[in-house]
Amino acid sequence: MATRIVLGWREWVALPELGVARLRAKVDSGARSSALHVDSQWTFYERGAPWVGFRLSPGHGAGIVETAAPVFDEREVTDSGGHVTRRVFVHTTLMLAGVEREIEINLSDRRGMLFPLLLGRTALARVFTVDPARSFLHGRHPLGFAAVPLESWQ
Questions:
Q1: How far apart are CA 41 and CA 22, in angstroms?
Q2: For residue 145, is pLDDT > 50?
Q3: Parent domain of 25
Q4: CATH number at residue 117
Q5: Alpha-carbon separation of residue 45 from 51, 53, 54, 87, 112 (angstroms)
Q6: What is the tens place of the pLDDT at every residue in 34-72?
Q7: CA count, 13 A, side-chain hemisphere, 103
Q8: How many CB atoms lie under 10 A from the CB of residue 64?
Q9: What's the predicted TM-score (pTM) here?
């Protein structure tokens, strides 16, 4: 088994398929799924398949990103306060610590939270481990930084 990459409890990530070059993420191995803050979202159909359009503000002068993705799933999620909400899930590419991998993210209202992205344990599985005493171990990479596809990382 390959050595896992150590992450801090917060890291900079990129979501290139969604047009997000830099985004602060809270790395939370206690959360099962990953949640992305969106300012607004709407559903539509493309060639008979459900899609979701959404707007988000990555922060730090990045402006507003408006994008769309196919809906992967829709299911109930229980937040840390015990509140259950129905959320839309999409698949997208995560670029973090020189690794590129496909993850699923639910779209959520995280207004008031310090981090627009909560990176849960399913996104971390088999590749990353977390050192909760450290943060921002992998720098602030721009979109297009050299990431290695997961299948070649073994």
A1: 20
A2: no
A3: 5-139+147-151
A4: 2.40.70.10
A5: 6, 10, 14, 17, 31
A6: 999 999 999 999 999 999 999 988 776 667 889 999 999
A7: 31
A8: 9
A9: 0.85
